[in-house]
Structures
1.
Amino acid sequence: MSDLSPLSLTSKPPTGNSSLQLLILSNGHGEDLIAVRILQELLQQPNPPSVSALPLVGEGRAYKQLDIPLIGSVQPMPSGGFVYMDGRQLVRDIRGGLVQLTRNQIKSVRHWVNYQNKSGNPSAILAVGDIVPLLFAWLSGARYAFVGTAKSEYYVRDESSLLKRKTKGAYWENFSGSIYHPWERWLMTRRHCKAVFPRDSLTADILKTMRVPAFDLGNPMMDGLEPSFPTHRFYSTDAEHQEIIRPLVVTLLPGSRPPEAYNNWEQIMTGVSALMGSFRERDSILHTSGTVVFLGAIAQSLDNKILSGSVKSQGWRIVPNEESPVKISDPEALTFKQKNAYLILTQNAYNDCLHLGDLALAMAGTATEQFVGLGKPAIAIPGGGPQFNPGFAEAQSRLLGQSIVLVEHAGQVGQEVRSLLKNADNLHVISQNGWRRMGEPGAARRIAECLMEKF
């Protein structure tokens, strides 16, 4: 835990060189990463702002890559930031010091603004996440902007109508005509709020009708996903033949938080077995090659030995990386083989795993959304939580629409994959849906340019 006095800000100069002082508020690991993407673009602008940050959840390790100084108190909570999914997690956080931490953080934000005002520096706040950083920004009295990462109109509607829901509480998600409730929109329409950046066009359009200064500039989650290989390839005389003989590639996304991700991996391996069992060798649906390659995109936060042990226990044997028909940019990857299938575990080629996959077996939040945003289908298997539980998976299926196939248990994976691959027209619809819901790359740069103009 770090508790920096507001007046100690001068001990480490903020990043940047302009007179504008910018404070970033974010409330979660994913939100920290999105904030960092925007900051990377902000610092490339002419006369960039001087930047400090206050991560409201966790320790804000993502900010270290840009050497962004942190102000105020930072402390990891037992829930890891998932209190909204389970009331018991909130109780654990309160016992872990959440109330005192929140008080300290509000004081730190106000002290920061007062310090800048006394120094004669123009200041502003960028809130990234949900209502919590947005509320902190309003309480500060400074100018602010908001990047809304947590909510989307797709949770309650598509482009044509409201979604049909069976739960009694569904009405309250949209009772005022928007996924953003009246008190959230009130914070967005204060005179000090200069810009709101929703995560998709549908949400931006609806907020605009409610006097919110919303800008439809895209979702920074789709930035920084370039693979190690060129994505634009020229047509060759044997291109059709190569497409016919190439293997089916399935990306495996177990999430990044231990110990949950290890439990997710066991579920995914059950799905892998079900998928392999559903195909006959040289099955026409698997292209002529009859080969399947599974790409395990493993977060650095996980112990690869635990995952590889699980793979070996299910009959896979290690082979040289060169044997795999699919190549990734990670010499440290582990390659396994079983019958006519390969499984690769990598902790250094995440982007390659997203781009090479034809479909995904997914039990993750951000990673699943990024995969779908590339125009590809994912099969989601609900886990035990605290993040990827049945409630989260159901909400994610609404957010991503046709691009997600939600199964009740891992044993259904095989039949769902066969159903997907048999319908080429549906795959095209899924592709268009993913691009529309997640947006085009370059959002961080567009948001940075807008912030410089507004501030």
2.
Amino acid sequence: MTSLFIEHHSNGLAFYINGDLQFDTADEAIYHEYLVVPAIALAVQRFPNTLLRVLLCGGGDGLAARDILRFHEVSDVTLVDYDADVLELGRTVFQPYNQGSLLSPSETASGGNRLTVLTQEAFEFVANVPDACYHVVICDFTFPSRSEDTKIYSYEWFQQVQRTLHPGGIMSTNAVSPEQRTLGFWCLYQTLLAAGLWAKPLQVAIPSFREHGYGDWGFFLASARSITRSEVETIDLPEKLKALHSHNWQHALQIPAAIAQLRHVPKIHTLDCPQLFYYLLNPRSQLAATTIDDPKPQPIDFLDLEEPGTGAIGTDDLLQLDAIATMWLGHLHQAKNHQAKNLLQPAQNVELMPVQHRYHSPQMTTEWLSYLRALLEEVNLNQLLASLLERAQELPPQLVRELKQLAEKMRTGQPVTYISEHTAELITLLSVTILMANIATPDIVFAKGYSGSSGSYSSYDGDSGEENFGWLGFWTMMIGGIWLWNLYKRSDD
């Protein structure tokens, strides 16, 4: 269920959906003018003496519609938003800020009728409109909170948008933060390029967004026909804009080199193999992929850059457990040696354990990763071996012999100079499974957390010999480990 919240302050109000800031009236003009005005102004220049038809997807608050209707060249605007509650707020609470853009003709002083409002899913609507029926498509969507929400950022979506545009028509879309969600931003870039749209990225500072930790915000201006520097520099902007100025707005197309260098890393986001939500939840999983030698690199001006797409279509949804396990196994296969000293230090692959909750901020993720090594050290290897040997009849005889040898060496304090590759891989897989189980049910895997019967926190006692994994945590570990082991054996075959 969607949660809508309005916070009133001395300068106006701030609007939140599911806890995420959508706009603050103190600076919403920055967001909406950058989203709308360059696209409409460019279309006016490309289609002279033409009454423009504009499709606005999302934007139920009426603020983007306000800026579209600034242009007298626009004769028809279709606004499609699935959320009737937001549209009602646009007609009432937000009306002083959107200048009555969503009011019906009978409610406006001029009786204008340029805007049609439809309460409908944008993808469904666009899939059923004729080809080449709009000069401009503006996408004003909320930040995805679920993988399902990324459908309207997919390759298939951008193909549909391109189909609805007149030749040379313009698309403008709200993106994500190139600063905080770098790989997600460039995933959209590569997806636009793959869909046959020449895309120009913009990075814009919005104070209220930065105050909420969202970083600079991103947009894309796109068209099936190349967008050139000369036409961008000569477009006419309407009067009385609050944030967009003809002498400096193009600076938003200059992206810092440290961000721009990663534009070739992400894969294309498709409906069959979604990638975007993984990048949004794990924004720094590959940020070390490239380096810059110049200590003070110049930003890349995308007005001077026209490049084909380089993104590949993904083969796995990295938020699915089988894809995660397959990736782990691939790294295990690449490792040439699994010495005993590395068994309790598998932290080199922690980036393969993706965050799967949208409220895990980059700061939270960094802190979480810093605890992984300590968490792994809580695994009692002696007890783990004993638990495995209790089920020796279910394991291959050779593996059982190797596990017994390892257990004896550890019991007697002998140096463990070598263990077989399969034994090391099995223990590593089980350790990873324990981590996964601890994340899912932290109070039972290591017998930690609040105990209702005693009113206190239970703790791990490594010297007592008591079985303190907790039955659910233990079986989660065992079942997951056996499943991963079988997956590994199939990959051997």
3.
Amino acid sequence: MEKLSRKLLDSGFQFPQNLNIGTKEKLEEKVIQFGEGNFLRGFADYMINKLNAAGLFNGSVVVVQPIAQGLAPMLNEQDGLYTLFRRGIENGETVYEPSIITCISRALNPYDDFQGYLQLAHQEGMRFIISNTTEAGITYDPSCKFEDAPPSSFPAKLTVLLYERFKAFSGNKDKGFVILSCELIDNNGAELQKCVNSYIDQWNLGEDFKAWVNDSNCFASTLVDRIVTGYPRDEADKLKEELGYEDKLMDTCEVFGFWAIEAPAKYAEEIPFHKVGLNVVWTDDSTPYKLRKVRILNGTHTMTVLAAFLAGKDTVGECVADPLINQYMRKGLFEEAIPMLTLPKEDLDNFANAVFERFSNPYIKHYCLSISLNSNSKFRARNLPTILDYYKKNGKVPEVLSFAFAALMAFDHGTEIRDNALIGHRGSEEYKIVDDMPILEMYKELWSAYDGTLEGAKKLVSTVFSKTDMWGLDLNTIDGLCDKVAGYLYAIETKGVTEVMKELVK
């Protein structure tokens, strides 16, 4: 079977009719991308590919492998090409969109070719830097030296590249970069900029360079939202037959995609995602979009999966397909979470409806137990702020999220700690409760002392609520919350989660 390459693109090979093929032209290199993994290839590169196909960017991407071992050799073997399958549900319709992404010109490993890496700074047309080096990528490591070839940390590598750029163009203010950080940490661009400044100071690179870095470059913090499921291992042989060629770098992702970029809107004209209908927002404050994602998408996950698992569901798709759980999710989302957010209601409703389509995606199996990891800290970040906002606004606690809090404690009902997990039971089936060990030990102790009464449930909930290190405050100070959660917890323990959920959504 033929292998995917630029030679194959130009050979007259009969590609499937439903396959989108990006522009075959050789385009000027305008983007340096730190990270060659599935996410950026299914997100940013897809967007750039779409711009190029419309003739609106006419730029290619040089991928820099941020660690010593990676996919650069494999990318180069395929001339930067790979097939992306964008699949899911959008506006009620099933979408199945395979595309050959052609925007990557080459991949470079700075551990093998450090001078080639530095040479990127000398290319006048380079304008954008995109990064996704994992949550741990944006860290300041003082052991990195300027003389290292290359330094190990991503911010140190970037500092060296920026210094090379500064020297190559004699500090020209027009030769800075627009840097789009996609790492999953808050204020990723600002944190990256802090790290770079720390290296400038540590390495004594001078005030002129420091001023150029901070005044002539834009370190944009961004929020990214797309599930990229990566290489379709279980389907690879089937998809290879469908395509008619071999591709070792196939990538898969959902249909939905959103990118909020904290940067001046003028840059949108340089890389005009909006002109091809991509869901990209340039803003001076991405906080409302972060809250939207955390409280609607992530919050609905955490609000739902623990109760749903106890009710016998194993995947998010099963939750959405179940009429009772679907009604429960919608009640909590549209009546409790969304009214606490500040974006326009139409925007929030559209996002929420898209979330339900994403949860229904037949191509993604998202397991409840996978989402259940570290549920207490997730509940604090995703759902507790909504409870507090709701109480402040309405003078009472919300019903669905109080039930969800009780479901969290019912899910954490374990009998023994084994293999660093608390062991719970769903009927005759064991399941692992994975969280910080002090939390697991607390729940084990509390449930072993539970006497099966409503007063016993209140004592358990009150004790959990008193842990200010878990919640940031003593939740017993929220009038009515302990009684409400304890009532639901007692009902779950005596009637079962499904019966309580039925009463809740009447």
